[in-house]
Design brief:
Elements lengths: L6 E7 L2 E7 L27 H11 L2 H14 L5 H18 L5 H11 L4 H13 L3 H14 L6 H12 L3 H15 L6 H10 L3 H14 L4 H8 L7 H9 L5 H13 L3 H8 L6 H16 L3 H15 L1 E2 L4 E2 L4 H17 L3 H12 L4 H17 L3 H9 L7 H18 L2 H8 L8 H10 L3 H8 L7 H10 L8 H11 L3 H11 L8 H12 L4 H10 L4 H16 L3 H14 L6 H11 L7
Antiparallel strand pairs: 1-2, 3-4
Helix pairs in contact: 1-2, 1-3, 2-3, 4-5, 5-6, 5-7, 7-8, 7-9, 8-9, 9-10, 10-12, 11-13, 12-13, 13-14, 13-15, 15-16, 16-17, 17-18, 17-19, 18-19, 19-20, 19-21, 20-21, 21-22, 23-24, 24-25, 26-27, 27-28, 28-29, 29-30, 30-31, 31-32
Length: 602
């Protein structure tokens, strides 16, 4: 068993908080071992404070000396020295467990309970020891004795016993204990955390969400535990979890948990909807900022854009004066800049342009230099490439080499979206983009120079998915010139997916037999739900190609979406049998098991 770490542990008992140097109850669980007759540790010099000597010995790794000192500290303890007794007892439990003498703690606790019958730490250690020794009947008797000795309204016996039962896979026993606690204590909120764990173990997801919500109002540090537990809720139970966490009155901890759950469930928009109504104070701003950054990591760009916009709107006003808040201008400008970047990545150049120009109002020159590339990119995305060029030309002497380098890429992108490869090349002149493999490779591909395109794109740093797709086609198309293929990729750069799909489909009849399934697959992906005929064509004409497995999986998904299960199963079985080395095999097996009723949908 791994040794427990010493640390500062807070335990609540009877409304009092004790800060103990030891391990949290339940982290160091003794396990039964045979034999108590192992040689006892050497003695420790009987000078100074035994508790300090024990802690020092444990820090040095001398567990035998630490055990002797902890034992002496227990003997020397008085009825009023609760903190010292608790520290010594937890330390003794820890070092004996590390030495393999886990069964030795039970008689020591029994002696201590004769003097301190209601001591919560001693009672907890006793329960752990008895369970570890596989003596559940004695553990139940110890629990009942603790209840008799404890004050009538003390939830500690119920909490610790239920926790031990849950840890040992006995949720029904824990359910009975907590139900009795509800009757005796009148539904005490002190046991909400244990009740939440119990409901999760039994699959009672609405009750688990309600119990975690109640717990978080008292112990917000359990937020991560609540998120981890509730994240496992099946899709059919998630609406009930949402209702429990969103129920009035509005609870910020509960909504924070729900927002994290929605991100994990692939619903970032719903996560932001849970956080947006919260009152606008500084702590909520921190919550919003954290969620925006997590949305960016999840590539939920438009959600991130909205959160940054909300942060800018909230952070720039002082409620007392209803004017700009002193010292917050930099935070507002940062939120708008990050919102603009998220908008651009999410395909919203109009929203990005508004945010960039709002951030630029009254900004210093250094900030304007950072905003101009975003503004150029937004104008290019809107098709206003002449306006973007005028903005660059109007910089005059401010357009130094560093800024020219920053502006080259968005200007090139803007001209390519216009389909003007010649002007895009002109922008490259005199910038370091002339040496950028990916940029030069794309331009060569658009112009039909496949040899240069292959040489440069294959050297691209951290190639993006579209680069991988292009290389997959280039590796199988023979010949040095293919303007039709370049025109198809240029249409894709112009974001004209319909024309790009049509061009790729037309190319399938003119390129080599080995390249035909690759261009057909590109066209099918671009057409989305309307690509089923193209996938069928790949399956029928090119079954052994690398795209053959992808075609079968796509057809199976299309048939499942249409409610036509038998053909979907047939496609998946063909994939598994005919393409045993395909990387798509795990997805196919999971979908096949789902369709056969062996596994619920992911």
């Amino acid at each position: 068993m791994a040794a427990c770490h010493r640390g500062e542990v807070r335990r609540r008992h009877g409304g009092l908080a004790l800060v103990l140097l030891g391990v949290a109850a339940g982290t160091c669980l003794p396990a039964p071992v045979a034999g108590q007759g192992t040689a006892r540790p050497s003695a420790v010099a009987d000078t100074g404070d035994p508790l300090t000597a024990a802690l020092d010995a444990e820090d040095r790794g001398d567990r035998q000396a630490a055990a002797v000192a902890y034992r002496r500290a227990l003997r020397d303890g008085s009825p009023g020295s609760g903190d010292r007794v608790a520290i010594a007892l937890l330390g003794l439990e820890r070092v004996w467990a590390e030495l393999g003498w886990r069964d030795s703690i039970a008689p020591v606790v029994g002696e201590l309970l004769q003097v301190r019958p209601a001591d919560p730490v001693a009672r907890s250690v006793q329960l752990r020891a008895l369970f570890a020794l596989e003596r559940p009947a004695d553990a139940e008797l110890a629990y009942l004795a603790w209840r008799r000795a404890a004050p009538p309204a003390d939830p500690a016996p119920f909490r610790e016993y239920a926790r031990q039962l849950l840890e040992r896979g006995r949720p029904l026993g824990a359910d009975s204990v907590l139900a009795e606690a509800g009757r005796v204590l009148g539904g005490s909120a002190a046991l909400a955390a244990e009740a939440a764990q119990l409901h999760v173990a039994l699959g009672r997801w609405p009750s688990a969400a309600s119990a975690y919500r109640q717990t978080l109002e008292v112990d917000p540090y359990l937020e991560a535990a609540a998120q981890f537990a509730l994240q496992r809720a099946p899709a059919a139970a998630r609406d009930s979890v949402r209702m429990a966490l969103l129920a009035p009155p509005r609870s910020r901890p509960a909504r924070r948990v729900l927002a994290s759950l929605e991100l994990a469930w692939g619903q970032p928009r719903r996560g932001w909807n849970a956080l947006a109504p919260l009152a606008g104070d500084d702590s909520v701003s921190a919550t919003w900022r954290e969620f925006a950054e997590r949305a960016e990591l999840a590539e939920a760009w438009l959600v991130a854009r909205d959160v940054w916009q909300a942060l800018a709107d909230h952070g720039g006003m002082d409620k007392a004066t209803e004017g700009p808040a002193p010292g917050r201008e930099a935070l507002v400008r940062e939120a708008r800049m990050r919102g603009a970047e998220a908008a651009l990545r999410g395909g919203d150049p109009a929203g990005a342009l508004l945010l960039v120009r709002a951030a630029g109002g009254g900004a210093a020159d250094s900030t304007r230099r950072l905003l101009i590339p975003l503004e150029v990119e937004a104008l290019g995305g809107l098709g206003r490439v002449e306006e973007a060029q005028r903005l660059v030309d109007g910089l005059g002497a401010a357009l130094d080499d560093d800024l020219r380098r920053l502006l080259a890429r968005p200007l090139v992108t803007a001209y390519l979206q216009r389909g003007d490869v010649r002007r895009a090349r002109a922008v490259l002149e005199g910038t370091d983009l002339q040496d950028d493999d990916e940029t030069v490779g794309w331009l060569a591909l658009y112009e039909g120079d496949l040899d240069v395109a292959r040489q440069r794109l294959v050297r691209a740093i951290a190639p993006r998915p579209e680069v991988v797709d292009a290389l997959g086609v280039l590796a199988r198309v023979r010949g040095a010139d293919a303007r039709g293929l370049g025109a198809a990729f240029l249409a894709l750069a112009r974001r004209d997916s319909a024309q790009a799909a049509a061009r790729f489909e037309a190319l399938a009849d003119s390129v080599d037999e080995g390249a035909a399934p690759a261009v057909l697959a590109l066209a099918a992906r671009l057409r989305g739900a309307k690509g089923e005929p193209l996938w069928t064509r790949i399956r029928d004409r090119h079954p052994a190609s690398p795209e053959g497995a992808e075609a079968l999986l796509a057809l199976a998904r299309a048939r499942r979406a249409a409610g036509d299960v038998p053909p979907a199963i047939a496609h998946l079985e063909s994939l598994i049998l005919d393409h045993p080395d395909s990387a798509l095999l795990p997805q196919a097996r999971r979908l096949l098991e789902e369709l056969r009723g062996r596994r619920p949908p992911a």
